[in-house]
Amino acid sequence: MGDDSYPSARDLVDDWIDGLDPYDMVSSAAAKREYFLTASDLATLLYEPVGGGVGIGSATKYYMHRHLLQTSLRKHGADGVVKKLEARNKREEKKRMKEEQAEQARKRLMAAASTSTTEMTHIGRVTTTTIRIPRDSQEIKNLRRGLLNMVKRNMGFKTEGVIVLPYYYGGAPKNWRIEVPDIPKATFAALMYRPTDVDLESFVKNGAYYTEQYEASILFRASQTRLTKYFDRERVTQKIGSSVTVRYKPSTMVLSISGSAEMFGR
User: Fold this and answer.
1) Distant-in-sequence contacts of 231-237, Cβ < 8 A, 24+ apart
2) pTM strictly above 0.70
3) Which of 67, 153, 178, 185 has its CA 20 to 30 A from that of 111?
């Protein structure tokens, strides 16, 4: 007997087609992801540039929903689109199940954890319950400090600036990424404020990686002032973006952190 709660192929296709109005606009990143297209496919379509400019990077391209539908159907065929939609739906359902299991593990951790007196409304993916941040060991304090210093060393500019005497005008802030080897699972768990979860049961694993989104001030346990870096030649200050992405690959014990930067004080 089939599961009535599982969407049929027809339902998946209808949602895909009718999810937007024909003339709604879709960003290039979403166009590739949601319509199973490549940059080469998009190169043939009309688009509308949004944003961009001197010092803030290039514009984002937006494409019309109906054009993306037509291109995807022409490329993959109706049957091919159905197969891709079904495969994506299964992946999303599997991901939801993993997230539910991890959420239950997190709740067990919160109930059992010994805590400090500092309260935060969200740690990692937990956003609905007020919990306390565990105290860091000296090892983790040093690690957070070292990671923040590495990020600051990697901050910079996308493009070379220009000199208009007596000032130097730099380019837009570049995205940054750091990578640290030899991080055991227990250290990663403690860095994520879950020191008792040495088996990482409260984390969601996608493929070979655990991926978490954090506020920079929480991950680095730093004030807003410590998240900034002044560039003397450019006479501007950059600040680490509010959200950072943390990825951990247990098979190689490699930790990576990536994010963006905001610029002010020009």
Assistant:
1) 231/170, 233/168, 233/170, 234/157, 234/161, 234/168, 234/169, 234/170, 235/167, 235/168, 235/265, 235/266, 236/170, 236/263, 236/264, 236/265, 236/266, 237/263, 237/264, 237/265
2) no
3) 185
